Amino acid sequence: MENIQKQIQDITLHATEHDLQLLEQLLKSFQLWKSGNNTTFISSLLQMERKISDDDCEITIPISPLLYNTLHIVHGGMTATLLDTAMGVLANSLVPEGYGAVTTQLNINYIAAGIGEHMVCTAKMEHKGSKTLVLSAEIHRSDGVKIAIGTGSFLVIEKKNIG
Amino acid sequence: MENIQKQIQDITLHATEHDLQLLEQLLKSFQLWKSGNNTTFISSLLQMERKISDDDCEITIPISPLLYNTLHIVHGGMTATLLDTAMGVLANSLVPEGYGAVTTQLNINYIAAGIGEHMVCTAKMEHKGSKTLVLSAEIHRSDGVKIAIGTGSFLVIEKKNIG
Amino acid sequence: MENIQKQIQDITLHATEHDLQLLEQLLKSFQLWKSGNNTTFISSLLQMERKISDDDCEITIPISPLLYNTLHIVHGGMTATLLDTAMGVLANSLVPEGYGAVTTQLNINYIAAGIGEHMVCTAKMEHKGSKTLVLSAEIHRSDGVKIAIGTGSFLVIEKKNIG
Amino acid sequence: MENIQKQIQDITLHATEHDLQLLEQLLKSFQLWKSGNNTTFISSLLQMERKISDDDCEITIPISPLLYNTLHIVHGGMTATLLDTAMGVLANSLVPEGYGAVTTQLNINYIAAGIGEHMVCTAKMEHKGSKTLVLSAEIHRSDGVKIAIGTGSFLVIEKKNIG
């Protein structure tokens, strides 16, 4: 606790208003994760909002400086995380009780820079086999420009065998 | 500031010792990022340690619950982030002054679960053209097991045109 | 010429009716190629029939034992050839006069076995930049089952610089 | 038979010496395939020569105009066929008796033009699981230049379930 108070003091000493907003957002991610409202810290950090139907999964995230690469656009790894999550959520919703779907392969084509207010990823099923699933997804930014497309392979395995 | 103090109180009220360690780590990532020691928040969050030579780039990260997916193994998106960063750092070290290399495509095969103490990603150059670069990378975990391999395409562009 | 007549004799000596049909088909591919009706021997061999519009390119091929792998289903390399050709034809139709589009990357997910009477590949544009193009394609077989999906990256280059 | 003789006459009427050599090569592919010396027509057409060990598989093919695309370099689909075959041969050598390995995903980065006398593809195992295999491969041309790299995913299935 002392360390944490010291860290907060250190950060806030030189912080701009914008820095403090980002810190608040970061702490909120931690709170959400620990409260169990979001399933992973990453999902909380990216402030993922999910809509899932039988056929597709849509995840929206706001674009925050916490997700930037050195060029101040969304880091390709964060785009990959969004794609993998949207496909993974849909894949896991489609396997039988007691089974999970783990990503075995992911391919992404980056098309345009991740800038603007938010990004929306839509994943859909391409193939549902008993052992493997194939999904595709695409991401658009708030001005409507498509910024990435991807495909993923998933292996269906019994949950007790995962990890 | 008031919000932040309230958030800290709220978090620490029900926190275990382990939770507090993770919070400290998270705040340290923020500090590092703001101090400019690491180039992005993501790199700080993943606690990336880089070694770069003419031919390859090696990045090591500790495995933390902050990187977990719902199965309590490293999130595939974090593995993708590590691969993309190691390849991107090497690619950017190889283009002429005033130019940058942006990822246009990333393919990953996930081989084994991301568990254990840390992960090491090694990227190497496969092709260096004047317009495009191709790199490959692989990730091993601390027990020596290879957990992912990947390839990436990069487009060489003038820095003033990026973003 | 003597060699060729000897080869024909040797082949036809032990040939079944079906073998002779395949030989006829093969010779027809060679004739078509040499007559310039098809642009490449491969296109002739696969008996590609193209329909191209502003937005997509559709190529249909009959399934022949000449395209089989050791399991007597269409060889994955032939499926890749069909995908690459459909995307490449569309890409090349979209670049300015004097420019060509060369494949720099191809990713394919194989979903179901290539069997039945024919395969239809439909390619569409995902991104048209001045330097790079991204396309996607999918292949269905005659019974309507989707057997593969793929994406491709293309680099736009001046024709005089190709090869 | 009459058709075939007519086709041969038609082809040889306007054929150059080089055309006749290609026709001989084509007929030789058909002979080899039918004699059962090569496992598929495609392997015969590409004149594949295989060396396989416990750890890798090397396939060499001569570059022939039969493999050209419209730019008179090796068709990307033929490069894909070579990669898929080298990986597939190795994969199938590594699964238990009664099982086969089918390609579920293939990713290729094309690096340089396929020109010169021949191409050599070397495939190696990256991961051998009980259900899935991951392999990688690279292709060099006769002047030593690397022209493509690729990775492939394979699913292990009982032979009676294939096709």
TrEMBL record, chains A, B, C, D:
Cited Pfam families: 4HBT
Membrane-related topology note: Peripheral membrane protein
Alphabetically ordered keywords of this record: Apoptosis, Cell membrane, Cell projection, Cytoplasm, Fatty acid metabolism, Hydrolase, Lipid metabolism, Membrane, Transit peptide
Signal peptide annotation: none
Thioesterase domain boundaries: 73-147
GO molecular function term, any single one: hydrolase activity
Reactions performed catalytically: hexadecanoyl-CoA + H2O = hexadecanoate + CoA + H(+); dodecanoyl-CoA + H2O = dodecanoate + CoA + H(+); octanoyl-CoA + H2O = octanoate + CoA + H(+); tetradecanoyl-CoA + H2O = tetradecanoate + CoA + H(+)
Compartments reported by the entry: Cell projection, Ruffle membrane; Cytoplasm; Membrane
Family: Belongs to the THEM4/THEM5 thioesterase family.
Full protein name: Acyl-coenzyme A thioesterase THEM4
